[in-house]
Amino acid sequence: MTEMDLTKEQKDFYAQHKEELKSFPIYEILQAEQLFDTVNSTFPAYTEKIGHYFSLDDAVRTVENNVCDIADGGCYMYVWIVKRESGLYNYSTPESRLLFQFDRTTKKYNKIDEPKRYKHWSF
C-alpha cells in the first residue's frame, strides 16, 4: 500500500498521529527448534517469525498458552518475543527479548533466561 492508496480520512489521521505511530512498538514472535545449531554456535538452529502483537501482554499470553500449537507438537522447543520499534534494521538487544521453552508435559511454554552467549547477538 502506498500513500496514494490511502483515503483522505486515512491521510488526515496519519498526519495528526505521525509521531505517535513512529514510536509504537510491536512484539514479534519467533520460534526455534533448538537454541544452538552446533555445540559452539551462538545462533539458533532455525528461527521463523510466526506473528506479532501490539501488546506485550497479548504476546506473552499467546506464547505461554501455546495458542494454535506454536510448538507444532513439540517440534519448536523455543520461542522468542522480540520488541521492535518502527523503522528499518531494528536490531534486538537482550533487554528487548524474552525467551520461552516448551514443556512437553504441560504443553505450555515457560519463560527462561537467555543463554549468556546471546548477549551480543541480534536478530
List keywords for this structure.
5 strands; 20% helix; alpha+beta; 123 residues
- N/C terminus separation: 26 Å
What share of the residues does DSSP label as strand, in percent? 25-35%
Note the overall shape. elongated
| Spatial ordering of strands, largest sheet | 2-1-3-4-5
Total number of β-strand segments?
5
Give the mean pLDDT: 83
Number of helices: 2
Number of domains: 1
Helix content: 10-25%
Radius of gyration: 17 Å
Task: Give start-end ranges of low-pLDDT stretches.
Answer: none
Order of helices and strands: HEEHEEE
Structural write-up:
- The protein has one domain.
- 20% of the residues lie in helices and 27% in strands.
- The protein has 2 helices and 5 strands; from the N terminus they run αββαβββ.
- A 5-stranded antiparallel beta sheet has the order 2-1-3-4-5, covered by helices on one side.
